Amino acid sequence: MAEGLKRRETPLVDRLVVIGPGLIGSSILRAARATGLAHTLVTTDAHSGVRERARELSLADEVPDTSAEAVAGADIVILCVPVGAIASVVAEIADHLKPGAIVSDVGSVKGCVVEKAGPLLPKSVHLVPAHPVAGTEYSGPDSGFATLFVNRWSIITPPEGADAEAIAKIAALWETIGANVEFMSAHHHDRVLAITSHVPHLIAYNIVGTAADLEEITQSEVIKFSAGGFRDFTRIASSDPTMWRDVFLNNKDAVLEMLGRFNEDIAALARAIRWSDGDALFELFTRTRAIRRNIIELGQETAEPDFGRKKG
Amino acid sequence: MAEGLKRRETPLVDRLVVIGPGLIGSSILRAARATGLAHTLVTTDAHSGVRERARELSLADEVPDTSAEAVAGADIVILCVPVGAIASVVAEIADHLKPGAIVSDVGSVKGCVVEKAGPLLPKSVHLVPAHPVAGTEYSGPDSGFATLFVNRWSIITPPEGADAEAIAKIAALWETIGANVEFMSAHHHDRVLAITSHVPHLIAYNIVGTAADLEEITQSEVIKFSAGGFRDFTRIASSDPTMWRDVFLNNKDAVLEMLGRFNEDIAALARAIRWSDGDALFELFTRTRAIRRNIIELGQETAEPDFGRKKG
User: Fold this and answer.
1) Of the residues A103, A260, B129, B131, which has the fewest C-beta atoms closer than 10 A?
2) Rounded Cα–Cα distance for residues B98 and B114 (Å)
3) How far is B54 from chain A, CA to nearest CA, in Å?
4) What stretch(es) of chain A map to CATH 3.40.50.720?
5) Where are the alpha helices (DSSP H) in A22-85?
């Protein structure tokens, strides 16, 4: 058993269904298999090529062609699709869920899930949205791995009045596959993630675009001298375009507000540079150093120089 | 011999002096030792603690207390101090250099080196500024290693009329310790590095500061959920504060201009988000993905997911 995964003596549920076995979905399936999380694992995808690959990789016991078939008799259904696709998948499965089934997801935005998916589900079904804060820059069924969630945080955002037992089951699912669990409102989640994930992605995508568009500096120069800092940003800026388009379209208010704060701060920094205020720069650069130390101490980052990166 | 370092049959020079054996300086010394670059290695530092550590680590054959002593009889002197300290070190050593000595540096800004240091040197001494685009987020004599420059680029920016033999010697020095060499004007260097290194550092420092200052989101939340993207930025934002303060103060014009372009682009992105222009977002996010692929293909980055990072 890989470190951090918790092997179960008895399965948490009989049938666990993952819709969308990409990076996150296939990692859940691999971890579920390794821990004995469910008696039967089921997965499906809108794309036949992904279903085919899921079968080749034996990611699940059953890989039916449609989500309607997949969710029949399911105890837990986890939607691992881009946030913009959640409502339409929920519409497809709503009539095929058994009473008492739990529907969850892994989307990076949570308010819109409750708003859009909630009203489409029958009263007899429990909606318990979640968001595991974990991933890599790669996508698809081949990119997942069983330990992706170990020592990462999964945030559960139960809607008001959600069933306590259903919430506990989703928490147990994440803990079994190695994650720490935190509860918060969807609204607070969307603001926290706007600053710790969405705006960082936005500025990474943006700086890579700005560099590519300069006419006096060649693409080859940008690439050659990327080890000066730029290349770090390209990792985040190579994340899945569909997923990230949907994140920004569905967390508009929080992203624009946090970006506004980022812009205020960068304007102040630009002013400090223009007026040679070295002390202001030094003060900020010292403060930010301490924050990384905390992240390393709390086990969310490696202390190895340069991320422990090997030469390319 | 570690891969990429080129063992010399005969030393390139008799006496090589590194002033400031920090991350970069101590890496040069280690690589010089490993390749037989010079007959005698000399280092010194303004801080007695650093000199002491250099002696304990046997980074050089001689560790005199002052730069004036250190440069006596030197063939090549490399200044590995923050850009803001270069002029005062040059003033200290100018009268102690032998005719024909070559003075170089490793500063991240090049225009200011020529402007400030050039006039202080005797005519008989050659100034050949250089900038190895390599490093980690750590500083000090203990953080260096011999292969730091392997497969990285070192940019040489010879002033007009610089001695061809002196330029060739500095190029040979970098090639011996594994770097690729590129020549350009100091002016062009400062603009290329503004976009591939200086502005990326500025926005990394800035986003870490913005996140730390939010009142509604706790430091603990920022740390816990940093794996969503934020933690990548903290690596760069933990780089040496003195070095980076000096970079911004000495490359003001190029940094402010490139930052202006970054700001224009981010304003356009914010507008695309506000008006739900998903196609514009998708187009950028697809384009940026291709740039990372190029950086990986050209050996400037690892293809391993998440930089090959181990769990913290």
Assistant:
1) A260
2) 20
3) 20
4) 13-184
5) 23-35, 48-56, 67-71
Instruction: Give, to the nearest 10 degrees, the angle between helix B278-297 and helix A199-213.
Output: 70
Interstrand relation of B126-127 and B130-133 (parallel, antiparallel or unpaired): unpaired
Q: What is the pLDDT of residues B101-157, one digit of tens each?
A: 999 999 999 999 989 999 999 999 999 999 999 999 999 999 999 999 999 999 999
Q: What is the pLDDT of residue A216?
A: 87
Q: What is the ipTM of this complex?
A: 0.94
Please indicate whether, in this complex, the C-beta atoms of B281 and A214 are within 8 angstroms of each other: no
Global pTM value = 0.95
Q: What is the mean pLDDT of residues B169-180?
A: 98
Map tokens 């033999």 to a residue.
Answer: B165
CATH for A13-184, options being 3.50.50.60, 3.40.50.920, 3.40.50.300, 3.40.50.720? 3.40.50.720
In chain B, what residues touch A151 (CB-CB under 8 Å)?
A: 311-312
Q: Which CATH architecture has domain B188-276?
A: Orthogonal Bundle (1.10)
User: Under CATH, which number does the domain A188-308 receive?
Assistant: 1.10.3660.10
Burial A36-69 (b: 16+ CB within 10 A, else e): ebbebbbbbbeeeebbebbeeeebbeebbeebee
Question: Which of B135, B230, B308 is opposite residue A309, by nearest beta carbon?
Answer: B308
